[in-house]
Amino acid sequence: MATNVKVVGTDLRQVTIKVSPSTYLTEILEQACTKLKVPNEKYLLKHKQRQLDLSQTFRTSGLIPGARLELVVRANTPSVVNVALQLPSPESNVFPPHGRVSEKLPSDFTIWQILRQFESGKASAGKGLNITARGVPQTSNGTQAGSGQLYYEIPSIIIEKRTLSTFADFQKTLSQLGYNSGGVLMRLSFQKTDQLLSDAMSEIEEYFKSEEQESAPQKNEGVETETQPESTSEPSVSPSEVHSSAPTVPTSAEVVSRPSITKDIPATQDTNRTEAMNLDEGIAPGSRPVTIFSAPASSTPIAALRPDSEEDFAPDISHAKAHQKLLKSLGENKRLLSDQELEEKAAMEEAKVAAVRSIKIKVRFPDNFSAEWTFGPGDTGASLYSEVRGIMANSSTSFRLVLPGARTVIKDDGSSTLIKGYRLSANTLVNFIWDDSVPANTRGQPFLKSSVAGQAQAVVVPDVPEIEVKQERQSAPVQAPAPRNDSEGSSFKKPKWLKSFGKK
User: Fold this and answer.
1) Is beta strand 3-8 parallel, antiparallel or unpaired with respect to 68-73?
2) What is the full DSSP assignment across 440-453?
């Protein structure tokens, strides 16, 4: 039964999307972004401050008919998804016991990049998987002997109930399919086509040439690439030799695998990027341990979502007394400190700073991700800048680290220590600010390295127990006693000369 949902954009424009129980939330996002004329790869859907899993259908998402969805901006840094590929027979026999390979990949990888990564990455373990360039021989008359040609076998991916079997489908990313975290299982099979292998290779080059050019500048610097394993020990065969040769047709169960043509579809950039993600630390060697915190899922602070009672904001007698005490102290004359007292105060502050052995500094980045390190008395501002550059995707850009409140800029030099030079005696939050010379397109790129972003953990906000505060009751004012008549025992006595006036 069809129904409608309403999607509200970031500019408060509202569109209505017609959905059915089997409609995926990714389709709702695509239709809404198309009507609002915004790119769908930069947005997510939320419902009542809850981020929706775009991989679910409308039936399984728990939404009601006529639900009001919000369009929110997606974080620039891609998240990490654990992708498992279930191989068909006979390739599944090479990877016992379940016949599948798995690897952690960023959510902005396309399906084609994932297949190429499984061919040449660490998951294949050098066993020569051939997924994207498979050919099967076939003769023109269908007999078991005679001259023939290699026809292309296109991979077919089944993710839950969705089937991806075209080059257009392979250009979709995991994020566009709704997978931004957790894991996903992809079942692989092959479909025989009527297209020659050489023609298919040319078409593949046209489809994914622009995609490779965009991903080429995003190579991770400083990561050593491993030599790609050869998919087969036999020499590669040119297309002209394929047409002129007369291969013997094997049985129907046999499939002739063709070596992947690396000049057409280079997978080096995918290998470099994924190898950086597989590093346990993902930071430059010799650096200190770091804790990465992911960006908040909601733009509304958690404190604003907690229900508050109106009685919490009503002042009581204790607030009035505190205010009166403050006014009284401000109105009193105070003596200025003597030179000896000033020296003693400065000595106490120096001793307090000297007693600090370590502090934690958390740096908040422009995409709301944050990182926390522990520094000692000997660490300087250059040490902090070096740690920040170690996790940046583009470490050549200029930036400043500013202390909140005072707007004090930490200098990138070794002249002043963090603890003594900047008087940091407790855990401190530092803000990351781009330099004015950094262009806007550089600021919009992913800030953290993929290897570092994969280690991000959510900020856990502890539940503060509610404590009932006993308010001081205001004592009732003392009432003056009512005046009594003279007849009720008043102590006043009339003089004798006044008593004579009352006699007749």
Assistant:
1) parallel
2) HHHHTS--B-HHHH
Whole-number Å distance between alpha carbons of 204 and 207: 5
Residues 81, 393: Cα–Cα separation, whole Å: 19
Do 380 and 416 meet the contact criterion of CB atoms below 8 Å apart?
yes
- Amino acid found at 55: S
**Given this structure, which CATH class describes domain 280-297+356-460?**
alpha beta
Burial of 328: CB neighbours in 10 Å, binned 0-12, 13-18, 19+: exposed
Tens-digit pLDDT profile for residues 234-278? 434 344 333 333 334 344 333 344 444 334 444 444 454 444 444
The conformation of residue 500, written as its DSSP 8-state character, comes to G
Q: Is 167 left (phi over 0), alpha (psi -120 to 50) or beta?
A: alpha
H helical segments located in 306-338: 317-331
CA distance 173 to 176: 5
Q: Are 112 and 132 in contact (CB under 8 A)?
A: yes
C-alpha separations of 478 from 163, 427, 475, 483 in Å: 85, 52, 9, 15
Non-local CB neighbours of 372 within 8 Å, separated by 6+ positions: 290, 291, 293, 360, 361, 362, 363
Residue ranges per structural domain of the chain: 3-73, 80-278, 280-297+356-460
Nearest to 26 by CA among 200, 174, 184: 174
Q: Name the residue with tokens 């994914």.
A: 208
**3-73 and 280-297+356-460 agree in CATH topology:** yes
Tens-place pLDDT, residues 415-430:
888 888 888 888 899 9
Record the pTM.
Answer: 0.43
| Range from 51-55, 140-144, 342-346 that averages highest in pLDDT | 342-346
Residue 392 bridge partners (DSSP):
448
For the domain covering 3-73, report its CATH number: 3.10.20.90
